[in-house]
Automatic annotation (TrEMBL):
HAMAP family: Phosphofructokinase_III. Catalyzes the phosphorylation of D-fructose 6-phosphate to fructose 1,6-bisphosphate by ATP, the first committing step of glycolysis. Homodimer or homotetramer. The lineage of its organism: Bacteria, Pseudomonadati, Pseudomonadota, Gammaproteobacteria, Alteromonadales. Keywords: ATP-binding, Cytoplasm, Glycolysis, Kinase, Magnesium, Metal-binding, Nucleotide-binding, Transferase. Its EC number is 2.7.1.11. Belongs to the phosphofructokinase type A (PFKA) family. Mixed-substrate PFK group III subfamily. Mg(2+) binds at residue 107. This is ATP-dependent 6-phosphofructokinase. It comes from Paraglaciecola aquimarina. It catalyses: beta-D-fructose 6-phosphate + ATP = beta-D-fructose 1,6-bisphosphate + ADP + H(+). Substrate binds at residues 129-131, 166, 173-175, 225, 269, 275-278. It is found in: Cytoplasm.
Length: 359
């Protein structure tokens, strides 16, 4: 009998329970696996909060948002309450008799997992983040659902913008990468999309809004929380010292609103979706993708192919060493197909570096 631990690290995300279900059921049915749920992410290993997951525990959770195990984005074993507690985590891993540990998370979780693997723990990574900013993979589960939520919000903001001839600004999550803003902006028909990767010039945005006012009487702007003006900085909402990523972004939409009001005669309104983007049930595609990822992770465990993270490359599942994704962020680049499509449609990105491809 193999004994496998599962934890969900970082922020909660649609599709986590679908993945727990897939890993757990696949190991139980095919490999006589015993599943140990680690509660509240790495905090469960630090504070000894674990429980066995039965087949029943893994049933009926496919469509459930959040995570039945709980999560934490502040419990870093290498800096827990100011101390390096990694040796304590490794010792408890062995005390539990685990053959391996499945960690579900983004770059922060994978960075911790990589360091723990160097200390002798058998780690398998599963790519989870609504931000889609994990290296080496084309997709992470939760991303599509977050984009769908943001797109619906844009559809709703459009009716108000049209009715009142306003500039409507929507702030999305994404940290230092603009994937959610880019994809939701295209799906929601935005006029302006502002990304962290390309600092904006306020004059470019003003010009775009004035042009839209003359043509359609209103404008829709999508701004990623990590976007910043040229020669400026990101808007930091708060700092959490003991988190793998201590900076919490937020508030750029209100800042942009204040800037635009100084140049435009029309009304400007700002909306921030915040955690609404990461809550609720996953889409059908995210449920399927999370299931495929989970069963693939179970197969890696069965083959004792440790120190790997499951990824999607060229639309197929494979795995790469944790080292390749640790301490890195996947950013939107000029070569991205979706970005090029946006430029071809004349969408404004607020900077001279990204001029629409208009003939």
């Amino acid at each position: 009998m193999m004994r496998v631990g599962i934890l969900t690290g970082g922020g909660d995300c649609q599709g986590l329970n679908a993945t727990i279900r897939a890993v757990g059921k696949s190991l139980m049915l095919n490999y006589n696996g015993q599943i140990i749920g680690i509660e509240e992410g790495f905090a469960g290993l630090l504070e000894r909060k674990v429980r066995e997951l039965t087949y029943t525990d893994c049933s009926g959770i496919l469509a459930l948002g959040g995570t039945i195990l709980g999560s934490s984005n502040t419990a870093n074993p290498f800096n827990y309450k100011g101390k390096d507690c990694s040796a304590q985590v490794v010792a408890y891993y062995h005390e539990l008799g685990l053959d391996s540990l499945v960690i579900m998370g983004g770059d922060g979780t994978m960075s911790i997992g990589y360091e723990l693997s160097k200390l002798g723990m058998n780690i398998i990574g599963v790519p989870k983040t609504i931000d889609n900013d994990l290296m080496c993979t084309e997709r992470t589960f939760g991303f599509e659902t977050a984009v769908s939520v943001a797109t619906e919000a844009l559809d709703r903001l459009r009716t108000t913008g049209h009715s009142h001839k306003r500039v409507m600004i929507l702030e999305t999550m994404g940290r230092y990468a603009g994937w959610i803003a880019l994809h939701a902006g295209i799906a929601g028909g935005a006029d302006v999309i502002l990304l962290p990767e390309f600092p904006y010039d306020i004059d470019e945005i003003v010009s775009a809004c004035r042009l839209r006012a003359s043509e359609q009487q209103y404008s829709i702007i999508v701004v990623a929380e990590g976007a910043k003006p040229q020669h400026g900085s990101m808007v930091v909402q708060q700092t959490i010292a003991d988190s793998p990523d201590p900076i919490r972004l937020g508030g750029i939409a209100e800042n942009l609103k204040s800037q635009l009001e100084q140049h435009l005669k029309v009304e400007v309104r700002a909306t921030s979706l915040g955690h609404i983007q990461r809550g609720g049930s996953p889409t059908a595609n995210d449920r399927i993708f999370a299931t495929n990822i989970g069963t693939y992770a179970a197969d890696l465990i069965a083959r004792k192919h440790y120190g790997q993270i499951v990824v999607q490359q060229q639309n197929r599942l494979t795995s790469v060493p944790l080292q390749q994704v640790a301490n890195q962020t996947k950013a939107v680049t000029l070569e991205d197909t979706t970005l090029q499509s946006a430029l071809a449609l004349g969408i404004n990105f607020g900077c001279s570096e990204l001029k629409p491809n208009l003939r």
